[in-house]
Amino acid sequence: MRVSNIISLSAIGASSVLAQNNATGKLGDAAAITGNPIGKTAIATLPEQPFWKGSLNGNVQGSVVAKSGLNGEGVDYEISFSNLPQEGGPFIYHIHVAPVPEDGNCTGTLAHLDQYIRGEDPACDSSRPASCQQGDLSGKYGKIQSSEPFTAKFHDPYTSLKEGDGAYFGNRSVVFHFANKTRITCANFAVQGSNTTAPYPTGTGSPVKTSPAPTASPSIPVDNAGAVLNVLKNLAIAPVVAGFLVLL
Ligand SMILES: [Cu+2]
């Protein structure tokens, strides 16, 4: 192979890596979650009254039901929404980082669950869900078209029902928006607890705070720094460490 060909191939490789890096979090792609308590469920049910004060025929109705995935890996979601607004779709919904305050003000839920500091733009590429904001459920798994009722079931590897994880959402909220991001309604998750007696991963050494198995992200090269960072992310202190690294 000619040197010029090698150089141009290298350039293509470098530019594709750069393009990928542009569309992920400042802390990288989201790690797959393991160790969710078996049988644990969190449900967010929309309230009777909308937050949005425009013209609606009653609030959007429905819920987001989230259960620990098989073997505690990731979370299985069941979504159902009805009484959708007549216009302003397709609608979008997310896990937001803060709970709904007592007065029901959806603005108080702040931004999306985004532990890896990705931001909303560019829009989530649903073919690479690990690169999206963890809370961007409609970005990763589909917006809500206007046909009623809207239902969806999907598995998300990147959100957690394990307290202490940065990706834990049992104490957070769901917000339902118009396509233009205006907040229509919102609801807190309520944890239903574990409905089985299957054991938590305790009593077998140090099973809890391990980094995800390398097989969870086979296409991503892992160096020592990356592995350390993954562990730190699991400990939910990555932003602190990232701040420290910036100081360096
Ligand atoms: Cu949102």
Strand content: 15-25%
* Small molecules bound in the structure, each named once: copper (II) ion
As residue ranges, the low-confidence spans are 3-21, 195-248
Largest sheet: 7 strands, antiparallel
General form: globular
Instruction: Identify the CATH homologous superfamily of the domain at 40-194.
Output: Superoxide dismutase, copper/zinc binding domain
- Give a count of the beta strands, DSSP E runs of length 2 or more: 7
CATH topology term of the domain at 40-194: Immunoglobulin-like
SS field, number of helical segments: 4
CATH class of the domain at 40-194: Mainly Beta
Give the topology string: H per helix, E per strand.
HEEEEHEEEHH
How does this structure look, described?
This protein is of the alpha+beta class and 248 residues long. It has a domain at 40-194: Immunoglobulin-like, CATH 2.60.40.200. It is 19% helix and 21% strand. It has helices at residues 3-22, 137-141, 224-234, 238-247; strands at residues 40-45, 61-68, 75-82, 92-96, 150-156, 173-177, 183-194. A 7-stranded antiparallel beta sheet has the order 4-6-7-1-2-3-5. The protein starts with a helix and ends with a helix. Residues 3-21 and 195-248 have low confidence and may be disordered. The protein binds copper (II) ion (CU). Copper (II) ion is lined by residues 94, 96, 112, 175, 177.
Question: What would the keywords be for this entry?
Answer:
single chain, 248 residues, alpha+beta, Immunoglobulin-like, seven-stranded antiparallel β-sheet, globular, disordered N terminus, binds copper (II) ion
